[in-house]
């Protein structure tokens, strides 16, 4: 297989360029790729205002940058994100991404945190199989998990998410389009579009990949207001998205009380659990142990601050101090805990 690589540049800053892999231009050989290079490049640039092209080439699949995938079970592969916050060093590649290869099609569970990462995930999938890409499942609305979705849509995938995600994404899209490249660098983000899902679900839904099925389960507001889990039937692998954090400090962007309620009554145990961040675990209890302790301590510290009559400005440092003994287990602890304290205070203030 040969892949079409376009050199795309910012029209306002022609020196800022990056190679962009265009899945629609892939061909079984160089000639097939080259035959569609001009038309595919022109169409893609027309759909990405603010970018210009500086030529394209067709490269063998084995020369395209590809993410490292680890096979956990038959047909189940995971790319492990970096254990840290967004940064130029990790290029926004901090989320765990999943690939499930069925007998008839491939599913993607979170397509990555930038156009660049989505392209590298596509190349990695094509090194595994030439089966068509089917469902591309967004476990929630945060950009480190979903910003690569357009690449998968271009490859023929159907973007699927919780019914609440489109509104949540629309409310934040413009802010993220400005803030994320400032955090990870302009090159990996160049050409990234935060696309809405083509299909949304509001109840448990089963998707057939041939040889296995995926069960998607929406969750009441917890980490965010658009969370869902994914369970692969053949391997009994549970993908939790950011309902479970390991090593990277959990982010409360929905409801602390709702998140603790989900942790108190989680789904049935699985053969393995893939969290949104951090290493795979043998059980959900193992995967969520540190997170449960952190979120419980956050709740208790906020409640203590409220009971003491502290205002927000005093409560935030008090909560951070109360949780400080937990800091060694978590990356990005100080900044995230301060934000979590403010969010939890606002939620619990009128209890």
Structural class determined from secondary elements: alpha/beta
Order of helices and strands: EEHEEEEEHEHHEHHEEEEEHEHHH
| Overall 3D form | globular
* Total beta strands: 15
Major sheet: arrangement of strands: 4-5-6-7-8-9-10
Q: What integer value in Å does the Rg equal?
A: 21 Å
Determine the strand fraction and express it as a percent band: 25-35%
Helix content: 25-40%
Distance between the ends: 59 Å
Low-confidence stretches: none
Biggest pleated-sheet summary:
7 strands, mixed
The helix tally amounts to 10
Mean pLDDT: 97
Characteristics:
351 residues; alpha/beta; 5-stranded mixed β-sheet; 15 strands; 27% strand
Q: How is the topology of this model organized?
A:
Layout: E1 2-10, E2 13-27, H1 30-46, E3 51-60, E4 70-73, E5 76-79, E6 97-101, E7 106-109, H2 115-128, E8 133-137, H3 143-146, H4 149-154, E9 158-162, H5 165-184, H6 186-189, E10 199-201, E11 205-208, E12 213-218, E13 228-232, E14 237-245, H7 256-264, E15 272-277, H8 284-307, H9 312-323, H10 333-348
Parallel strand pairs: 7-8, 8-9, 9-10, 14-15
Antiparallel strand pairs: 1-2, 1-3, 4-5, 5-6, 6-7, 11-12, 12-13, 13-14
Helix pairs in contact: 7-8, 8-9, 8-10, 9-10
Q: Can you put this structure into words, describing what you see?
A:
There is one protein chain. α8 packs across α9 and α8 packs across α10. The mean pLDDT is about 95. The strands form three sheets. This protein has a seven-stranded mixed β-sheet with strand order 4-5-6-7-8-9-10. The chain contains ten helices and 15 strands. The chain has helices at about 30-45, 115-130, 145, 150-155, 165-185, 185-190, 255-265, 285-305, 310-325, 335-350, and strands spanning about 1-10, 15-25, 50-60, 70-75, 75-80, 95-100, 105-110, 135, 160, 200, 205-210, 215-220, 230, 235-245, 270-275. A hairpin with a 2-residue loop joins β1 and β2. With about 350 residues, the protein is α/β, with parallel strands linked by helices. The chain is globular.
């Amino acid at each position: 297989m040969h892949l079409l690589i376009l050199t795309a540049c910012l029209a306002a800053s022609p020196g800022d360029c990056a190679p962009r892999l265009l899945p629609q231009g892939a061909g079984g050989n160089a000639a097939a790729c080259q035959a569609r290079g001009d038309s595919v490049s022109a169409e893609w640039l027309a759909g990405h205002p603010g970018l210009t092209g500086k030529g394209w080439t067709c490269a063998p699949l084995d020369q395209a940058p590809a993410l490292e995938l680890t096979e956990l079970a038959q047909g189940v592969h995971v790319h492990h994100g970096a254990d840290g916050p967004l940064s130029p060093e990790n290029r926004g590649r901090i989320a765990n991404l999943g690939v499930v290869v069925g007998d008839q099609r491939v599913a993607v569970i979170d397509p990555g945190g930038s156009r660049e990462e989505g392209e590298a995930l596509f190349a990695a999938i094509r090194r595994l199989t030439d089966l068509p890409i089917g469902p591309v499942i967004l476990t929630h609305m945060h950009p480190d998990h979903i910003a690569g979705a357009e690449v998968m849509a271009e490859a023929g995938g159907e973007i699927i998410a919780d019914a609440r995600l489109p509104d949540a994404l629309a409310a934040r899209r413009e802010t993220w389009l400005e803030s994320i490249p400032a955090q990870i660098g302009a090159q990996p983000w160049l050409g990234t579009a935060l696309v809405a899902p083509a299909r949304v679900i509001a109840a448990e839904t089963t998707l057939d990949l041939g040889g296995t099925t995926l069960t998607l389960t929406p969750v009441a507001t917890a980490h965010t207001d658009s969370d869902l889990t994914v369970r692969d039937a053949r391997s009994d692998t549970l993908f939790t998205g950011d309902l479970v954090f390991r090593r990277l400090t959990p982010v409360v962007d929905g409801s602390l009380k709702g998140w603790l309620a989900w942790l108190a009554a989680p789904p049935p145990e699985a053969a393995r659990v893939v969290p949104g961040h951090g290493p795979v675990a043998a059980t959900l209890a193992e995967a969520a142990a540190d997170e449960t302790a952190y979120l419980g301590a956050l709740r208790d510290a906020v409640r203590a601050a409220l009971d003491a009559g502290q205002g927000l400005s005093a409560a935030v440092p008090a909560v951070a101090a109360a949780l400080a003994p937990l800091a060694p287990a978590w990356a990005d602890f100080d900044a995230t805990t301060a934000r979590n304290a403010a969010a939890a205070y606002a939620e619990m203030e009128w209890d």
